[in-house]
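Now for a concrete sample entry.
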Amino acid sequence: MKLKTLVKATLASTTLLASSLSFAANVEVNANANDLAIKGYDTVSYFTKGAPTKGSDKFTAAYNGAIYHFSSAQNRDLFKAEPAKYAPQYGGYCAMGVALNKKFDTDPTAWHVRDGKLYLNLNKAVQKKWSSDIPGYIETAQGNWNGIKGLTADQIEKVFE
């Protein structure tokens, strides 16, 4: 009987740990309540078409605790082969926001590909400011990201008060 109780306790602990780790991963990716990343836009299309394209729930892939939609099976398969190549930087949070130690949502139509990496911004006005010094903001954001990626927006506010 004790062995059965030990097995149940171990399973319960493992389940709780796994669910807490998956929640922590979601903090690193800008996704909606249904875990949908970049508002359903096809992240591969930024590279192949040079433009944002709305994806479809017919073609999906999961990566870092988020679900990505694609406009075609071909784009989905490209993503699955190299997700880190196509996933937006900073988990899809606003690149300018990360440079400011913030996590802001993004407008998938405010985007930029630089050196083979996709960067998203809060909106077109923020994108315009970000475009004034892309290398400088990327360098700052790279330094900031490791310190904020596992934190919620509320936790970040407390750290930088």
